[in-house]
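task queued by scheduler; priority normal; single chain, no ligands, no partner chains; default sampling; output format set to structure tokens
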Amino acid sequence: MKKLILFAIIIATNGILAQNTNVQSEVTTTVRTIKDSDGEKKVVKNEVTKEIQKIEVGDEKANSKDMEVVDTPVQVIKSTEVINPDGSRRTVHIDRSATYESEGKTLKLELDAQGYKLIGKEGKPSQLLRKTSTNAYFYVTKDKTAIAYFDTTGNLVLEWYDSKTDSATTSIFKKVQ
């Protein structure tokens, strides 16, 4: 009998303890259709935003069984999942898709299957950003390769190596949108 009562108490307290957070989740799905010589391809982008708030109870009021709920900070977690035409999936915790400018040059970044593609003035991809294992990217053009990363303010930093002068050149592209 003692075991049965103990078991009932454990089950009851687990039910009470499990409900100590409010979670609100929102998913925004964007489907982009790309038509080219190979046919029509669809790229699906799911942006998931979760708002998590811990529930804390205030002091008990005198002569009442009611307790006030104390406001606590809301933690917002955002992630983006890209589903490629071949069915492969990629999750990005910070989507850096935006427009960046530096010294009259404008770069527009968009997520793709392996990193980001940079869209030129004509609306066609011209360069690529490919993720490395050190939280940086390879910046690949037709004739050059550089290292790219995002600084703490969200700007895109490119570091080029010049073999003729044996030095590195840094370009900082500020986030516009």
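post-processing summary
- The mean pLDDT is 80.
- Helices lie at 2-17.
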